[in-house]
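Before relying on records like the one below, remember that each one covers exactly one chain. Contacts with other chains, cofactors or solvent are not represented anywhere in the record.
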Amino acid sequence: MNSLYSAAFSAALFMAVACQCTPAKIDDSYYLKPESEKPANNAGDSNSNDGKPDNSSDYHKGYTLVWADEFEGSALSTDDWNIEVNGNGGGNNELQFYRAENVSVENGCLVLTAKQESYSGKQFTSGRLNTSKKHFFTHGIVESSIRLPKTANGLWPAFWMLGNDFSSVGWPKCGEIDILEMGNSAGIKAGTQETFFNGACHWGFYKNGGYPNYAKSSNAPYSIQDGEFHLFTLIWDEEKLSMYLDLDKNPSVKPYFEMGLTETEDEWATGRYFHHDFFIVYDLAIGGNFTGIWDAAGITALANGPARMYIDYVRVYQQ
């Protein structure tokens, strides 16, 4: 496959998904979903710590590394990744044009660079890529070591997954797992952008103008835009999916996001949408609904030059 999507598929992907197409509000509730229909198994309960393997001091125990990219070469492998090129706004009124030139491999890291520059009718450019049809997984541990840029104001970095059947069933039926998002308007308003982040999931189908999603925001106990690499981990099995910050350094940390996956009776039940292959996506969006910034004048994060999101590695383990 070429390193770029076909024009038709790329346009559809941008208009329909991206950890994006999310309601601007992020809290601890289920959007558009009655209380009685919440997934079981403590979904959304950040006090539950049983989403990890039994040995909390070694959460990889019982798992085998099945795929990784350490980004050790001089260029991105197009056997592994698709670079997206589009300026359709991701379905979220984003302000950037995604270019291949903004995706690079440097000093052992994948780098996404956001710039303030005029290109193809946009005032900003950035990078986005994915492993669709190349590397996709059902269940396991999916984690990535990431050095985040300062997001204030207007940057929206994300590490997420999308159902590999997107091209055949569409979004949100394919399912979406957002392992990391930063730059939300709530963090901007509170002045907590360096600590405010969230996990989220989207699934199902539109009914009466809505579809089911669940997002939960957290304030980390320390800055995760401090110029250091931080580990974001998804542990996903038949029972639930759970997300952790810096689990390698703090093996007893509780999940910042958790959602049960055992319910199957309801047509919107999570168990119908999260037990199949998903592929990996990284992007560094600029502005849009998530940030609450729709005008170039509101983007202050790039006032002093480009911003970069560094990915040291991505690794996938399965039992």
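The domain at 7-23+70-230+279-318 is CATH 2.60.120.200 (Jelly Rolls).
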